[in-house]
Specification:
The complex is a heterodimer of chains A (456) and B (256). Chain A is built from 16 helices and 17 strands. Chain A has 456 residues and is of the alpha/beta class. Chain A folds into two domains: 2-302, 3-Layer(aba) Sandwich (UDP-N-acetylmuramoyl-L-alanine:D-glutamate ligase), CATH 3.40.1190; 309-443, Mur ligase, C-terminal domain (Protein-Tyrosine Phosphatase, Chain A). In chain A, strand 2 (80-82), helix 5 (90-98) and strand 3 (105-109) form a beta-alpha-beta unit. Chain A is globular. Chain B has 256 residues and is α/β, with parallel strands linked by helices. Chain B has a single domain, classed as Rossmann fold (3-Layer(aba) Sandwich), CATH 3.40.50. Chain B is built from six helices and twelve strands. In chain B, a hairpin with a 2-residue loop joins strand 7 (119-139) and strand 8 (142-158). The chains are: A alpha/beta (456), B alpha/beta (256). The interface between A and B is medium-sized, with 32 and 35 residues.
């Protein structure tokens, strides 16, 4: 077995290098696909070799950013096997394991659908579950189906593993009831809440009895401080909290982290309440894995952005801000960070590949209206540019403010032509559109490929 | 003219962007000088059969559908009366299932529905997911195409005399076998197609509006001025191409 594993991983590493040298999409899953195909049990064996164990991160929104934040915190004390490029199926985890032979700690973001198998094969020490929103229904099915599969898989997780859950999400928080080793994280700052649930809010009804929850405050989608007026099911006490949150527009945010180990002020170089959630979750996970509060502060404060998630790329004296959008809850939060301040020139890109969701109806559940009410020119692009253009017109955008340009590269150049030097072009792409746009910018030498770990 | 719309359970049944359908009806009505007067109808609220010209029921996740099903069944009589008096209906996905006779779950239990559409739905083994292209003939000789997206595990079996909404050119349709999709009963349309359905299928939105106007005015065939649907047609063309290229169930049927 040891000999075979060595041959497999050696061959797989070589394939990854060849794939990258050939410029084929990073080869981030190719070696893993090979190992996965030849011997799925290799994942179990490779994970089992990690002396500090494995931590998994899953949820609908924020997986990549949360995992990257946790990596920044944990990277000083550990050598990580980490699927940084967001290849989050079992084959991607296999690749990360294969290419990090000297690692002692595995840190993996996991696709919601792949979580049950990842739990079984990697036997994690800690699992972070961030949130569940409606997302790509053609691919994942209904939210409740995902939750049910998680429930089943978590019941087989040994008691000594730590389950870190977002207590502000009724469905996710409930997954930790009756677990001896659980940490609840969440936000505690009613000033940052919304007065009412958004249109696309999920999990509005009590997970135990079906009565609509009363929300004292809702922060992001249905995440908030809830209580069922009928059976009393309520948000659990939070072990790790983000308080006194200050958001500074498109640039940054700060908050006070309150944990059992103590408190600290954190300055985050990322905007948006959803990134405060990501940071608090990453902190809770890192603390559960033995990080100190000063590790947490240092890691979070030096964190920039995961690729395509609030990533700033400069080209020809102009800056492009890439903000991935992929489902209503996530897109609503992106809209929220943009709805004040300078009226932006926007490129919105909608593709309909499998990784984007082939069903594009979700764009109608996004509350684009506040953004469109103060946007300048908007360029709709991607394989479903016309569909998106229709949505934006219905959202109140005047015909003369809208351009429909299906080619991503042409749309990008059109947008860059509309912004002044020194100002920013805001680009909201779906997943494959983000990768394609980044590819264009890589070719122009403006940014490194996403699988390249070196800091720019 | 004021067109009165009753939107059933918007808080529960809204999974496939149902508000997009409502927005399209409102805008296309406004462009012809009509106002859409939209009322939400929730659990426990009675329906006055004469209060609306159009009733809309969207789709929900299984959990939400189960929460509204008993209430909808209790509204059954009012809905039948409204339909008989010429009120137009659009029911999508879960709403389409719930307006039929009922739903047979895998364990054999039967959840009764409204019994308006002549069909029954049985739980299926695999989900039917993908782009769909239909050919419809709501008025004799007027064939129109409809492009949408389907995602359902329930197989809906129409009674033999029932009129489908359309013939499936690409995709699964009601049950993945019959070659038909949706159901049409006078001024009522039920369908699995979302996307949402109406933005890129403006002709169907107009058909529904003219049915609702007929109810509101008592006129036999109210006409609506044509609109310049440039973006709508571009969006339709892409959606139709997707159905041709990757609509489900193609190996079974080889229709044009």
């Amino acid at each position: 077995m040891q000999v075979r594993l060595g041959i497999e991983t050696g061959a797989a590493r070589a394939i990854g290098a060849v794939s990258r040298a050939a410029g084929r999409g990073g080869g981030t899953t190719l070696p893993g696909k090979l190992v996965w195909k030849v011997d799925p049990g290799a994942v179990d064996a490779l994970a089992g070799r990690l002396s500090s164990g494995v931590a998994l991160v899953s949820g609908t929104n924020g997986k990549t950013t949360t995992t990257a934040m946790a990596a920044e915190i944990l990277g000083t004390g550990h050598r990580l096997a980490w699927n940084r490029a967001g290849a989050n199926l079992l084959s991607g985890i296999a690749s990360a394991l294969v290419s990090s032979s000297r690692a002692d700690l595995g840190l993996f973001e996991v696709d919601e659908g792949a979580l049950p198998e990842a739990l079984e094969r990697t036997r994690p020490r800690a699992v972070l579950l961030g949130n569940l929103f409606r997302d790509q229904l053609d691919r994942y099915g209904e939210l409740e189906i995902v939750a049910e599969r998680w429930r089943g898989a978590l019941s087989r997780l040994p008691d000594d593993a730590v389950l870190v859950v977002n207590g502000d999400d009724p469905v996710v928080g409930e997954l930790a009831t009756r677990r001896p080793n659980a940490l609840h994280f969440g936000l505690d700052d009613p000033r940052q809440g919304r007065s009412s649930l958004q249109h696309a809010a999920d999990s509005k009804y009590c997970v135990r009895c079906g009565t609509p929850y009363d929300f004292a405050v809702a922060y992001v989608g249905h995440l908030g401080d809830y209580r069922c007026p009928s059976c009393g099911h309520a948000r659990p006490p939070l072990d790790v909290r983000g308080c006194d949150i200050e958001l500074s527009g498109l640039l940054a945010s700060r908050f006070r982290l309150v944990a059992p180990a103590g408190e600290l002020e954190v300055e985050l170089a990322l905007p948006g309440l959803y990134n405060v959630y990501n940071a608090v979750g990453a902190a809770a996970l890192a603390l559960a894995l033995g990080a100190t509060l000063s590790d947490v502060r240092a890691g979070l404060e030096q964190f920039n952005a995961a690729f395509g998630r609030f990533e700033r790329i400069t080209t020809g004296g102009k800056t492009i801000v890439l903000l991935l959008i992929k489902n209503p809850a996530g897109a609503n939060e992106v809209v929220r960070t943009l709805e004040t301040g300078v009226p932006p020139v926007l490129v919105v890109a909608l593709n309909d590949e499998i990784a984007d969701g082939q069903d594009v109806s979700w764009i109608w559940d996004v509350d684009f209206e506040p953004l469109l009410a103060h946007a300048g020119q908007v360029i709709a692009t991607g394989t479903r540019a016309a569909e998106l253009g229709l949505r934006l017109r219905y959202g109140g955008l005047a015909a003369e403010q809208l351009q429909v340009v299906p080619s991503l590269e042409q749309a990008l150049d059109r947008g860059l032509g509309l912004v002044e030097a020194g100002t920013e072009l805001v680009v909201l792409p779906t997943y494959t559109a983000m990768l394609a746009l980044r590819e264009v910018l890589v070719e122009r030498g403006a940014v490194r490929p996403y699988w390249d770990g070196a800091r720019p | 003219m004021n067109i009165r719309v009753g939107h059933l359970y918007p808080d529960y049944l809204n999974i496939y962007a149902d508000r997009g359908n409502i927005a399209v009806l409102a805008r296309r009505a406004a462009l012809r000088g009509h106002a859409l007067d939209i009322h939400a109808v929730g659990i426990g609220q009675e329906i006055d059969p004469d209060a609306f010209d159009l009733l809309y029921v969207g789709g929900g996740q299984d959990r939400e559908q189960a929460l509204v099903a008993p209430d909808l069944a209790a509204k059954s009589e009012a809905l039948h009366v409204a339909h008989a008096r010429g009120v137009a209906f659009l029911a999508v996905c879960g709403g389409y299932q719930l307006l039929g006779r009922g739903y047979r779950a895998r364990d054999g239990s039967f959840l009764p529905g409204v019994g308006l559409f002549p069909h029954e739905t049985v739980a299926g083994e695999r989900r039917m997911i993908g782009d769909v292209l239909l050919e419809c003939e709501l008025a004799p000789g007027e064939r129109r195409l409809l492009a949408g997206f389907e995602n359902h595990a329930g197989r809906t079996i129409l009674d033999s005399a029932a009129e489908p909404l359309g013939r499936v050119l690409f995709g699964y349709g009601n049950d993945g076998e019959s070659g038909f999709e949706g159901c049409r009963l006078g001024r009522a349309i039920g369908t699995y197609l979302h996307g949402p359905l109406l933005p890129r299928n403006g002709w169907l939105a107009d058909w529904l509006l003219s049915q609702a106007l007929a109810h509101a005015t008592g006129l036999q065939d109210p006409t609506l001025a044509p609109l310049e649907d440039v973006l709508e047609e571009a969006a339709f063309a892409v959606a139709a191409d997707r159905a041709r290229a990757r609509g489900g169930g193609r190996r079974k049927r080889r229709l044009v």
